[in-house]
Amino acid sequence: MSTNKKVYIELMRIIAAWLVIFNHLKGYLLFIQTTGSKQWIYIVLSMITRINVPVFFMISGMLLLGRNITYSDIGKKIGRILIYLITFEILITVAESYMQYRHMGILTFDLVVFLRSILAGNIYGAGAYWFLYAYIAFLLMLPLLEKIAININAKDISYIIIIHFICFTALPIINLVLYFKMLDEIVLNSYIVFPFGVLKCIFYPLIGYYLDKKINIEDLGWKPICLSVVVSCCGIAISGMCTLAEGMYLGRYSENFTELFDYITAITFFLLIKKIIFKGKMSVRTERKIILWGSLTFGIYLIDPVLKAILFNKYISFFRGRIPLISSIIWCFVSMCLGGTITYIYKMLIKNINKNIGYRKFV
Fold first, then answer.
1. How many CB atoms lie within 10 A of CB 291?
2. Cα–Cα distance measured from residue 352 to residue 344, given in angstroms and rounded to the nearest whole number
3. 68: how many CB neighbours lie within 10 A of its CB?
4. Cβ-based neighbours of 80, under 8 Å, separated by 6 or more
5. In terms of Cα–Cα distance, which of 137, 87, 129, 83 is closest to 301?
6. Phi, psi (rounded to 5 degrees) for 68
7. Average confidence (pLDDT) over 309-334
8. CA 265, CA 247: separation in Å to the nearest integer?
9. For residues 19 and 328, is the Cβ–Cβ distance under 8 A?
10. What does each C-alpha distance from 247 to 5, 32, 211, 255, 259 come to in angstroms?
11. What single string gives the DSSP state of each residue in 5-28?
């Protein structure tokens, strides 16, 4: 893998990881609690935040599709994900139980409920791990998706984007208008399902693969990227207007329209970052830092909910409910620094253990 390619992948991972952490903080939902010009700022920030998971799935698609990965390799990958998932869900359960006992003097734990919760993915405090369940689904479909990805073309990508647009953009907007007119909303029959355009764990990997493998970023001019930026801004504006219209009509705001155009924004982000890295100049030192921090993002993502369970209440009490946006932004950096440090130490320990084992076998 070329240095430029590795840098833009890791840079996207770092930004997406930051947005995932922010997505689960109060700062993300500030548009629900405010009015006026500030509300628009918070709406834009929340809409941009929603590209986090799409970007991770796009990176997964570009890295794993087209590599002829064997069923054995898929089994190993799923096994590793399950080990991490169960380990950190146990850690969160222990941390939450400890904090409950410390503050309330009550300790409740039911093993059967816990095991069922792992299967259902509804462990308290571990909501952010839903992505791992979706990622396992992606890995299970990988052999079939590879066959599709290898032969995918511009017409195919346009087709699945149009399906996605109908289901996740046009239909919600139409139903909002119908709701204002006091008419029944349009509901599609549950059997009308097109997974390639609907399921995130299929749609975004295929998009990521196409953008990376089928489009030469060096031949792609700035004009289509700038056009994509304009379309993304229009999408965010439409999403914001729908959010405000619903809120004014119902008297409360929601997240119902935050993902209307997230796929357009994610595609724009992907192309923009890749273009900047390939066309721009960056010092070797900066590249190494980006590659290092990018390699730590999975650990940061896993550790953040555990840090929240242990530290977040004290952290928030320090701010006393004030400046929620600033406190959320600061927490993102605190979590990334702590999680990154822990992950780095863990990786160095594993590396040294493997090195020593290898040395002993050789001797």
1. 16
2. 12
3. 9
4. none
5. 129
6. 55, 45
7. 85
8. 23
9. no
10. 43, 8, 36, 10, 16
11. HHHHHHHHHHHHHHHHHHHTSGGG
Q: In b/e form, how buried is each residue of 26-44, taking b as 16+ CB within 10 angstroms?
A: bbbbbbbebeeeebbebbb
Report whether pLDDT(361) > 60. no
> Within a 13 Å sphere around the CA of 271, how many CA atoms are in the beta-carbon half?
26
CB atoms within 10 A of CB 45: 19
Q: How far apart are CA 281 and CA 8, in angstroms?
A: 12
State whether the Cα torsion 10-197-217-215 is positive or negative: positive
The dihedral of CA 61, 64, 68, 73: what is its sign? negative
Please state the length of the chain: 363
Region 319-333: mean pLDDT is 86
Nearest-angstrom CA–CA distance, 306 and 269: 29
**Tokens standing for 130?**
């839903």
Query: Rounded distance, CA 105 to CA 86, Å?
Result: 26
Count, in order, helices (H) and strands (E) of the chain.
Answer: 17, 0
* CA proximity to 30, closest of 332, 321, 335, 333: 321
Tell me the three state secondary structure of residue 226. Answer: helix
The span from the CA of 78 to the CA of 83, in Å, is: 9
| pLDDT tens track for 78-122 | 999 999 999 999 988 888 777 777 777 777 777 788 888 888 888
Alpha helices in 251-323 (DSSP H): 262-279, 284-294, 297-307, 313-319
Q: What is the pLDDT of residues 168-205, one digit of tens each?
A: 999 999 999 999 888 999 988 888 888 899 999 999 99
Selection from 226, 223, 231, 258 nearest residue 242 by Cα: 258
Decide if pLDDT at 166 tops 70: yes
Looking at beta carbons, which pairs linking 283-290 to residues 24 or more positions away fall under 8 Å?
287/3, 287/7, 290/7, 290/10, 290/11, 290/14
d(CA 163, CA 186): 16
Residues 247, 252, 257, 262: what is their CA dihedral angle, to the nearest 10 degrees?
Answer: 110
3-state secondary structure of 215: coil
Which pair of tokens denotes residue 214? 């089928």
Question: Could you tell me if 343 and 299 are in contact, meaning their C-beta atoms sit under 8 angstroms apart?
Answer: yes
